[in-house]
Known about the structure:
mainly alpha, 4 helices, elongated
Amino acid sequence: MGKPTSIKTSEEVRDRLRLLAEERGTTITDLIEELASKELTAGEREQRAAEAARELGVEFTEQVMRAGQDAWARVRAHQGRAA
């Protein structure tokens, strides 16, 4: 781990992070590190999409990339809805 630093956020977010960390038996610092390491950057998402397309034998074009982005946007729109 690098040099510790601080992040400014609202009290509500801090309290939620504290609760989430307690429920997982960890610290807020470790929780934030875990969450940050799981979230991909735009570049990482594009790289993985290109790799997946290559594995499927699909040419990774702008059109394919946009279709994939649209599909994931639809998935995210449905997340959290009651089954």
